[in-house]
Amino acid sequence: MKVNDVVTYEVEGPIAVITAHSPPVNALSSAVRQGIAGAVQTALGDGSVGAMVLICEGRTFFAGADITEFGKPPVEPTLRNLQLIVENATKPVIAAIHGTALGGGLELALVAHYRIAVPSAKCGLPEVKLGLLPGAGGTQRLPRIVGIEKALDLTTSGAPVGARAAKEMGLVDELAQGDLRADAIAFARRVLEEKRPLLKVRDRTEKLDEARGKPEIFANFRKANARKFRGFKAPEHIIRCVEATLEKSFDEGMVYERQLFNELQSDSQSAAQRHVFFAERQAAKVLGLAADTPTLPIAKVGVIGAGTMGGGIAMNFANAGIPVTIVEAKQEALDRGLGIIRGNYESTAKKGRMKAEDVDTRMGLLTGSVAMEDLADCDLIIEAVFENLDVKREVFGTLDAIARPGAILATNTSYLDIDDIAAATERPESVCGLHFFSPANVMKLLEVVRTKDTSPEIVVTAMKLAKTIGKIGVLVGNGFGFVGNRILAARNAQADRLVLEGATPWTVDRVLYDFGFAMGHFQMRDLVGLDVGWNRETTSSANVREILNEMGRHGQKTKGGYYDYDDNRKQTPSPIAMQVIEDFAAKQGIERRAVSDDEIHDRILFAMVNEGARILDEGIAARASDIDIVWVTGYGWPKYRGGPMFWGDLQGLPTVLEKLKTLEAAHGEAFTPSPLIERLAAEGKGFRDA
Ligand code: 3H9
C-alpha cells in the first residue's frame, strides 16, 4: 500500500514493512517523515501486526535530514517528533540499514528498538562537516551506546564506521547474511517470538557511568584536536553536548542539544559549509554539453617527467589501478623518481594507511622509460616537465608524432597558455590542461582546463577521470593562472606591496592565519620554495623574492626565506629578510608607514574577490561556486568561510563595491571594481545569481 509518493506499507505475517523510496539518497524530507509517521500509526492500529521493519529502497538508507529544507519553516512531523513516535511505539521497530545511515538517518535508526545492517553499510554522524551538530539526539544517544571517547571521535570527525565495526560497538545489533529485507523480517519475528523488550537507547547509562569523574577525557580531547578544530564552531558545540550527557538528564540534554544546534544552524559557518557541500557537487556538472556526450576509455596513462609533480600524478593512477608509463629524459632521474614513489608508498604502509603488499602491486603498475615512443599506446598522456613554453611545445610536438590518434594530450602547466602549447600539435582538439596541485597524490583539487579547441568528449572524460582518481575536478577556461593561481597572483601582488609599504611578512601572515588560512602567505611561499618558477639565468633583483633567491634563501629547504628555520623547521621572523625588504623599499622610493591589520585584511581579501569576479565575468569559471571550490580545496581558504565568492556575497556586493572604490582611490587600479560587481550590486544580486 502506498502511504504517500515516497513511503509504502506492506504486511507480511505479523511484520509490517515500512519502505521509504525517495531518490537519490532518501533524505528525510517532510514527505518522507510524514509517510513514515503515517505508516507507524497504521501498524500500531493494526491488530495483526506485532513488529515493524523500517527499510529504504535505492542506493542507501536515510542519508540524513534534507539539507535543502534548512532555513525554511518547519513542517510536521519534525524529525524529532517523528523520533518520538518511533521510540514510543508500543510495538518493536527494527531499522534495516544498507548504504549509508548518516546524520538524521542514523539518529532515526537510534530510536528504533533494534538495528540490523548489511556488512557493506556505513553509519556516521557527519553533521560537523556541514558546520552543524547531530541535532536529533545523536549527541545524547551515541555516547550511551559507544561511550564518551568514541562518541567524541565520531561526532567531531564526522567519519562513518563500517557495519562490522558498528556491530562491535553495539551500534547495530545484527549483520544481515543475505537479503536485507528478508533478514530484517526474520529478525523482527525473533524479537516477537522471544518477547524481547522495547529497548530504548535513551535509558542506557552503563557507558556513561564508565566516564563519570574523568573530566580529563574532555580536556585531553580538546587539547589533542585544538589545531584541527581551530576556527570551527561546530566541534566545540558538539563536545559540550557530549559533556552534557554526564551532567544532565536525557531530556535536559536534548533541550541543550537543540539550543546549540539552533545556534549553529543560523550561523554563517554552517551556511558556508553547506554551500561547499553543494558547490562540490555542482562543480562535477559540466554546463553546455550534450548529456549524451560519450566518455573515452582510459586504460593506460603516460606521464612525462618523474619529478615531484610527475611522480605524484602517476601515483594517483596507480592508486586507482590504472597502469602508468613514466618517461624521463635520463635513466638516473627516472630511477630517482621511481625510488621516491616507492618511498612514499612504503612510508604510507608503515603508518598503517595502506597494506604492505599493496606497495608492490602499485609499483607493479608503474613502468619507467627513457623513450617517449613507449607512450604510443597510452589513452592519456600528461606532461609534467619544466614550466617553460618552449620546452612544453617541444614535448607536445614530439608527442604529436608518437601518440595514438584520439589519445588525450594533457599539460600540467600552472600559468602558460595552453592554446600556445596545443599549437605545437596537429590536433589541438585533443589537448587540455590537467592542473594538479602539489603534493599531487594528496591534494584533492584538479583544475581541468578546456581550451577553445578541446573536444567535448575530452572535457567529460577528464571530469569523470577526476572522480575515478578521487579528485574534485573543476572545469576552468584557458586564461593566465586559470582560476586558482590567478587569484593567488592578486593576493601575491597585495602581500608584496604591503610589506614594502610598511607591513611585515609576519603581520600579513598573522592576519591571514587569524582569518582562518592554515598558514600565512609568506609561510606558504617558504614552504613551497621561493625558487619555484625562478629563472636564475634571467634574474635581475627585480623584487624582494628574487633578491632572497639570489642570496640562496629559497625557503624552508635552505633554512631561510622570509623566515629563518632551525633544524626542526621551527620558524622565526628573519631580520635578514626584513633588511632586504627595507632596502628594496628605499630603493623604490617607498616611504614605509604603519599599516594596520584592517588594511592588510581588506586589501588582500577584496583584491581576491575582485579578481574572482573578473574570472567569472570572463567565463574562465562557469559558476561562482566553482571558484570557491578551487580556493577551499586547493589553497586552504577556510571551509567555514565558504570560499572567496561566498565570502563576498556574505559581505553584500554593495559593501564589496564601496570597499573596492575606497581602496581604488587609495591604492590604484588593482581595486577597480569588476563590472560584474557593479552590475550585480545595482541589481541587488549576489555572485550566486551570476
Ligand atoms: C542532519 O542530518 C541534521 C540532523 O542531525 C538534525 C536535524 C534536526 N539532503 O553526494 P552525492 C543530494 S544534516 C539533501 O552526489 P553519493 C546531493 O546534493 C545531514 N540532499 O551522492 C546530490 O544532489 P544532486 C547529515 C542531499 O552517492 C545527491 O543527493 N547528512 C543530501 O556520492 C547525490 O549526492 C549528511 O551530511 C541531504 N542530506 O553520496 C550526508 N545528501 O544530484 C550528506 C545528498 O542534485 N550526504 N544530497 O547534486 C552525503 O554524504 C552523500 O550524499 C552520500 C551519497 C554519502 C549520502
Label the overall shape. globular
Structural class: alpha/beta
Q: Given the structure, what is the number of helices?
A: 28
Question: Looking across the biggest beta sheet, what order are the strands in?
Answer: 12-11-10-13-14-15-16-17
Beta strand count = 19
**CATH homologous superfamily label of the largest domain:** 2-enoyl-CoA Hydratase, Chain A, domain 1
Mind describing the biggest β-sheet? 8 strands, mixed
CATH architecture of the largest domain: Alpha-Beta Complex
The radius of gyration over CA amounts to: 28 Å
The name CATH uses for the topology of the largest domain is 2-enoyl-CoA Hydratase, Chain A, domain 1
Classify the beta-strand content into a percent band: 5-15%
Distance between the termini: 45 Å
Mean pLDDT: 96
Question: Can you tell me the residue ranges where pLDDT is under 50 for at least 5 consecutive residues?
Answer: none
Heteromolecules bound: (S)-3-Hydroxyhexanoyl-CoA
Level-1 CATH class name of the largest domain? Alpha Beta
Count of the separate structural domains:
3
Helical content (DSSP H or I, runs of 4+): 40-55%
